[in-house]
Structures are given as structure tokens and as C-alpha cells.
Amino acid sequence: MAAPETSTAAVPTLYTNNTLRNAFGGVLSFFILLLIGVLAFSIRLFSVIKYESVIHEFDPYFNYRVTQFLTKKGIYDFWNWFDDRTWYPLGRVIGGTVYPGLTLTAGTIWWLLNSLNIPLSVETVCVFTAPIFSAFASWATYLLTKEVKGVGAGLTAATLLAMVPSYISRSVAGSYDNEAVAIFALIFTFSLYIKTLNTGSLFYATLNSIVYFYMVCSWGGYTFIINLIPMHVLLCIVTGRYSSRLYIAYAPLVVLGTLLAALVPVVGFNAVMTSEHFASFLVFIIIHVVAFVYYIKGILSPKMFKVAVTLVVSVGLAVCCAVIAVLIALVASSPTKGWSGRSLSLLDPTYASKYIPIIASVSEHQPPTWPSYFMDINVLAFLVPAGIIACFLPLTDASSFVVLYIATSVYFSGVMVRLMLVLAPAACITSGIALSEAFDVLTRSIKFQLPGVSSGAEVDEGETSSETTEARNDEVKAEKPEEKSKDRPSKKSKKKEREHVEKPSAKAKVKTKAEKKRLLALPLEASAVSLLLLIVLGAFYVVHCVWAAAEAYSAPSIVLTSHTRNGLHVFDDFREAYAWLRHNTDVDDKVASWWDYGYQTTAMANRTVIVDNNTWNNTHIATVGTAMSSPEKAAWEIFHSLDVKYVLVVFGGLIGYPSDDINKFLWMVRIGGGVFPHIKEPDYLRDGQYRIDSQATPTMLNCLMYKLAYYRFVETDGKAYDRVRRTEIGKKYFKLTHFEEVFTTHHWMVRIYKLKPPKNRIRGKTKKSKSKTSSTSSSKRGGIRKNPWH
């Protein structure tokens, strides 16, 4: 009896050591996560440190303007806001056409700070919203990966996500776009789904539905969630992994999540009427059929079960066929088969270029090049395959979800460069798992082969203590029934004794485990070299991420910079042009430009625009594209019918700015020609080539865009050499008859023209006297200002 007493007495000591170790590990993990959050926030501040606290890109200016309105007018006026400054003369209902998550989040932060007497401006809150949520996203990544492969993998994945360039590109300080908060919501939704899958807790299932609702409020990419999770549920059912935990993780999400999603005005009944959501409903029916089959299997005999299964399968097939027939009828009634244009362009990469050029014209909707993968995820591209293999050792419900997540995100990122953002978390999770497993194997191999390590201490302390505790607990449990069964029949006591003899001791278990791990250990030299290479790889990743954050993704598009021998040159032409419009035009004047600059013009110049970046009305955009593609007189008539007073064009030929309107012009032709057939792309091409030199077609040389971009360009250098197209322009000397130049920025990047009134367009010998009279009378009145450029 001495030996059992000793083993029983050792259990509390081992349990205490384990508790202390776990407590210390929890505190250490907490401080590491805190440092990861600080890292994620601080690495995104290069844009503020190097430049200034300013909103970046184009779409964020609309979000900033909406947030300003929300903080001034309140939530009720925000929901009912009709904006007459955009899409003139149609206007736009803002509350019903935006995803309000970002705006409400920033507005709430601003309100809380002001309630605490921290008087930050709305712009400052908007600038720093993305870095704050990048820290939250890193913590959500930790929670997700921890549920899959443990704390070590979770901390590694969180560190990788805090620095990954793909995510930094959309979350630097000043990048006030929907993705700033949506990526956090995406990862946190997946994390709670895996947590519910592992625990079967209805509390986490309900919390998951609420976080999914926040995701729906934040970004249209929520359809990725509501399709990926059903795919995983179906995979689990097909592979025989159905359980009550799977049902609890999925069913509340579909029911409660769909009801909450329908509350968002921009989604509404689309949550149940569009094809993007049908997969979730179909899997919802399937999982209920499977659950019913498992239920009746437990209460019926095998013969009755066969009969019941036949009945259930028959009824289930009939119901499924009826549902599918209804869905097919709904889908067939829609010209796009119930799918949105962007969703169809993801499923068929050629769809947008064939049918919806407005989607294909957006640069972030183009497929990425191979170098962009190495730029945006860097060494993670090599670690992802290793992480996928690690997920299969062993394959669980959680790890199968990660494999499915990385597989689908790789496909979608290959279709649209913008969705590299969705790939980044998946790549960080799988790479974190790979690195964690690799470090575990290598460090254990080194530990086993260090000189002076005794055979009893060769096994990892944590694993040894836990295994020893389990074995000793089993021995204690085996002893207790023996004590109670002293007066019981001899058969039972003999059975207990036999089981006790057959059961291996704790020491034997530990020894066997140690021998197995020793056999799996790598040579000492190989382990040390591999560990060193992984550290070098990590250092290279850190250097690349810091460089990307500081140089590649920190520059705001509203202010451009260039490094030359003479030093740093700053091109602030956009704000110069918008300031001129704000101070030199009437409040009710309408400004026409390509849709790229609509949000900025409305937010910074406070002037009414014809089209903007929302791109909801293809016909309206095609009208502007047709005007830019038409001769001067026809373009004047189109703009005059829209009550336009000023036309703004962006030109980069003088300083070499490639994203100007001349490079975008063919998209204007394609979009305009899609609605107005008289605009034909071949008319603007010479032998299939887009040219602006002397070989350009007459249609190209006489269109409005060419004239507004190159008007007086020959005066800059005498040759009219375009630095973007690297050629001299074809038509250097010409005059404008229906438009007049009113402002050109310092570096000629933005040029603003005013439509001439009809009376100034009178021509002909019989009208000379009238034109002279009108010119003298107007000069007396001082009504027309002389163009300073002539």
C-alpha cells in the first residue's frame, strides 16, 4: 500500500505546479498580446509621422463627410439624409445606401471621447480608427488560431497579422474605409464560430450572430462569411463529422444572423432574396434533416430506423426539390440570375470585362500579378503550404475550417487584387501554425540531445506533468472503487484487479512517450541550423513589413511626393484645385469630372457633382464618359443639359503622374459605348493601339478629353512632350470654342474649365456686330474675367 500512497500524495504537488505554470503562461500571454496590439497600432503611424494627419485615397473622404454629418445632426437625421450634392440631378439617399458600421463606430468613439472631456476632432478620430482596429484584429486572430492549434500558434499568427503588408495597405492611419473595421469583424466572427464548434455553447453562438451583424453593417464582404461557413458545415456532414456542437454553431447564425442582417437598410430583403445567401439556407435544411436522422436513430430499433430513414429521405428530397425549384424560379426571373455584378465577376473573372466595364475599370478589381503576392504577404507565401499540412496532423473540425478558409481566399485573391485583404488573415493563421509547429519540433529535438540532460527529464515538463497527473488520477480512480467493493462478489473484484494489472503505470506512459519523441527528434546540427534559418526568415519578414509600412503604403494619394537629386518634392495639386473651387465658385455650381474624383470634390470643395465613386448608376456615368469622348460642341451640349458649370480633369503628362484621365480615357469610351452605341472604341485606336501622338486617330485628337488635357501644353517646354506616354502629342496648337480655362494647378495635375455661356458661342458674318456689341458691353460691366493664361 506504500506505493499507491506515494503516488496519491504526489498528485496535489503536480497539480499545483501545473496551476502555477498555467497562471504564469496566461500572464505572459496577456503581456505579449498587449505588445502585439501596440505593434499593430504603431507600425501604421508612418503616414502621420512622415506626412500629416490627413484622410487618404478617395472613398474615405465620403465616409469622413458622412461621419461629420452624423456627429453634427445625430443618428435620426443620418438615417433620413437625402444628399443633393451628389449624382445631380438625381441625388442619393445616404442612410439607405451605405454600410453604416464604420461611420457609427467612429461616431461612437468621438462621442465617448468628448463625454470624457477629450476634445478630439472628428477628422482625428477618423484618421486613427483603422490603426486601433488593426490591434483588435490581431487579438481576434490570436483567439481564432488558439482554438485551432493552441496558444503558441495563436501568438505567432497575431504577430504576423499585426505586420502583414496586405492588411497595412488598407489600415494605415488615414485609411478611413470600410475594411478598417470589417477585417476585425470577419476574423472575430470566424473565431466565435470555431469557439462554438469546440464548446457547443449557445452563448458563443448568440455572440457570433451579433458580431456577424456588425460585419454586415460594415462591409459588403459579409457574403464571404455566409458562404464559407455553410461550405464548412456541409464538409463536416459529408465527412461524417456531424455533431450537436456543429448544429449549435450553425443554426443560430443563420436564423438570428439573417434577421439582424435584414435590419441594415442597405441589405434589407436582399438577405433572403439574393443568390449570395441561398447556400446558407440550403445547408440549413440539410443540417436539420441530418439532425433528425441522428435523433430517430437513437430512439428506434435498427429495423424501424431503416423504414424511418427511407421515409425521411423521401420527404427530405421532396422538400429539397421544392425549395430548389422555388430558388430556380427566383433566380431565372433576374437578368443576373440573382447575383450582383461584383459576385458574378468573382465567380467568372471575365464577366465584368464583357458586360460591366464600370466594375472592370476599377484598378483594385483587376487580378493581381505574382509579384504582388510576395509584396503583400512576403515569406508567408512559402509558409502557407506547411501550415496546411500541419492542419491535417490531426485533422479536426477547427483545422478543416482553416484549410477551407485559405483555399477559398487564395482563389478570390487571384480574381481580384482587393481581396488580397481577405487572404492576409488566412495566410497569417496557417503560417503561424507552421512556425509554431516547426519551433516546437526543433526546440524539442535540441532539448533531447543536449549533453547532461537525464533520461527522466527528456520529456517536456508541461507534457510530463500533465500526463503523469492523468495517469495518477486514473490510479486513484481505480483504487477508490476497489476500496468500496471490498464486500462485493469476487467476480467483480477479480475484474477490477485484472483491469488494474493491465493498465500501464504513469512512469511507463511517460517513458513510452519519451521514447517516441526521441525517435521523432531531428539531429542536433540540423535542428540548430533550421532554427537559425527560421529566425533569419522572421527577421527578413519584419524588415520587409516595416519598409512597406513606411515607404510603400504610408503616402496619401491626395498628396504626392517625389525624391530627386534636389531633394523631396511635394505635389499638393489636388487640395489646391479643391480649395480654388471652394473659394472661387458659387455654392450651387455643378462640377463634372470622372467618377474617381466625385467623393473628394464633394467633401473638400463642397460642390455638387454629377457622378461619384458610389457607381450605382451606370447610365449617368456613361453620360459623362460620352461627353468626354465626344467633340467639343457635342460635349458642351451634354454638360449644359446637366446644368454643369465647371469641368475638372486630371493630367499627369507634365510631372509623370500615371493615374491621370488620359490613361483612364479608354474606360470612359467603353462605359459610354455600352449605353450610347455611337461611341465606338475602335474609332479611338490606330491599328488596335491607343495613341496620343501624331499617329492618333482624328476622333481621338478632336475629343473633349484630349483637348482639355493638352490645351496649351506646348507652352511648357515647346515640344509638348508627355512624360507618362513618353511621346510628343499629336495636336499641339488648338483653341477652345465652348470651354475656357479658369484654373490650372502649379504642377498641371488638375485643370479646371468653365462652360462658356451660349451668347459667347455666336459665329457668322451676320452676327459680328452683335458679338462686338456684347463684348464691349460686357467689358464695360466687367462681367467676364480675362483668362490669365492668355
TrEMBL record:
Membrane spanning stretches: 23-43, 93-113, 125-144, 150-168, 180-205, 211-235, 247-272, 278-296, 308-332, 373-393, 400-417, 519-543
EC number in record: 2.4.99.18
Subcellular location: Endomembrane system
Keyword Magnesium among UniProt keywords: yes
Keywords: Glycosyltransferase, Magnesium, Manganese, Membrane, Metal-binding, Transferase, Transmembrane, Transmembrane helix
Domain STT3/PglB/AglB core: 588-647
Region Disordered, residue ranges: 455-510, 760-790
Sequence ranges of Basic and acidic residues compositional bias: 469-505
Compositionally biased intervals (Basic residues): 760-771
EC primary class: transferase
Membrane topology recorded in Swiss-Prot or TrEMBL: Multi-pass membrane protein
Pathway(s) the chain acts in: Protein modification; protein glycosylation
Feature: compositional bias, Low complexity: 772-781
The Oligosaccharyl transferase STT3 N-terminal domain, residue ranges: 27-429
Pfam families: STT3, STT3-PglB_core
Family the UniProt entry places it in: Belongs to the STT3 family.
Protein name in the entry: dolichyl-diphosphooligosaccharide--protein glycotransferase
Species name: Hibiscus sabdariffa (roselle)
